[in-house]
Amino acid sequence: MAPVPHHRSEVFGSPWKGVYCTHIESSRHFGKHWHAVYGLGLLVQGAQRSASARGPVEAFAGDLITTNPGEVHDGQPLGVDTRRWRMVYIEPEVLQPQGEPDACAAGVDLVRPVIQDAALAQVLATLLDRIACWNTHRPRGAAAADELACEESLAQVTALLLQRHASTPALSRDVAARGPAPSSQLRQMRQLRQVREWLADAPLDPPTLAQMAAGVGLSRYQLLRRFADAYGLPPHAWLLQQRAERSRHLIRHGASLADAAAASGFADQSHMTRIFARQFGFTPGAWQKATQATSVAAQ
């Protein structure tokens, strides 16, 4: 009797109906099959051989692997007993061509089944980590900031994927990278200030990247790039720093650490401590002691 192949898998939902992720470690040989969605994955360990409509595939640790909707493919380990990979699956209507906020990527093919692209691999790994984090925090009802982080990463992943590895020439233009004409710079700054105000006014329940982008007439990726250029951080990182500032203010005025964390939108006190210490160089507890000492000295 043949031994049962090793196989361990996890599947993660996301803030969007059209996106989900898998983490798989397996020695299985998968027969021919297909998916109705785009697949983009990172081979973390081992190697894999497969056949696809785009030709034979050999992928190794660190490589990115892709599948197109309806593409028949199989898969088996290559030179090792098992391999480990992480995938994100994206519905065609979610894969938006950049600069065309209302368009979808139906009919667009990802050109190569195996990709070596360090920048895309990095943003994909961040997206996969953030979606896993969102799944962890969601039951506690503190997932709004995680959703924004996921959405930023998804925008980066889809932008690089379409710009660098899609079949349609129009998608290879980096629309977001083109600077605005001088006459539009003032309008752009007003748009970005408006986005920053939206984030500042809703620290507990921030708008999504899609909502903010639609509100100022940009694609998600355009907004992400322009906001970072203007303020030095993408919206999610800026929001976390805004929350740290809010918690610092609340602690200074007597709030407990737990209350300050909750009122500032952090998942819990330890989450606040990590962000707070990274931003200010000292912990919320140290800040609390310092402000208490200042209050006593002033009496």
Any chance you could write out the topology, listing elements then pairs?
Blueprint (H helix, E strand, L loop, with lengths): L6 E6 L6 E8 L3 E4 L4 E8 L1 E6 L2 E6 L3 E4 L5 E5 L5 E8 L23 E2 L2 H20 L6 H22 L19 H17 L7 H8 L3 H12 L3 H18 L4 H8 L4 H12 L3 H15 L1
Antiparallel strand pairs: 1-2, 2-9, 3-8, 4-7, 4-9, 5-6, 5-8, 7-10
Describe it.
The structure is a single chain. The protein is α+β, with helices and mostly antiparallel strands and 299 residues long. It folds into 2 domains: 9-25 and 37-46 and 63-169, no CATH class; 175-298, Homeodomain-like (Arc Repressor Mutant, subunit A, Orthogonal Bundle), CATH 1.10.10.60. 44% of the residues lie in helices and 19% in strands. The strands form 2 sheets. The chain has a 6-stranded antiparallel sheet with strand order 1-2-9-4-7-10, with helices on one face. A 4-stranded antiparallel sheet has the order 3-8-5-6, with no helix packed on it. Strand 5 and strand 6 form a beta hairpin. Helix 1 (118-137) runs antiparallel to helix 2, helix 6 (235-252) packs antiparallel against helix 7 and helix 6 (235-252) packs parallel to helix 9 (284-298). It is globular, with a radius of gyration of 22 Å. The model is unreliable at 169-178 (pLDDT under 50).
